[in-house]
Amino acid sequence: MKKLLLILMLAVILLLCACAGTDDDDVDITPPIPPVLTPHHGDTGDPPVVYEGQTIYINDDNNGIDTVPDGDWIRVSWEPFKDTDLSHVKIWRYNNFATEPVLIDSISATHDYYLDTDSQLTERVWYSYFIDLVDLAGNESRSDTVSYALLSKSLLLSPANGATIAPQSNPLDARFSWNRSGTAGKFRLLLMDENYNYVWHQDLYVALEADPLFIQIPINLASQYSGQTLRWRVDSFDWDQEMQAYMGSESFERIVHIQ
Question: Is 143:78 a contact under the CB 8 Å cutoff?
Answer without folding.
Answer: yes
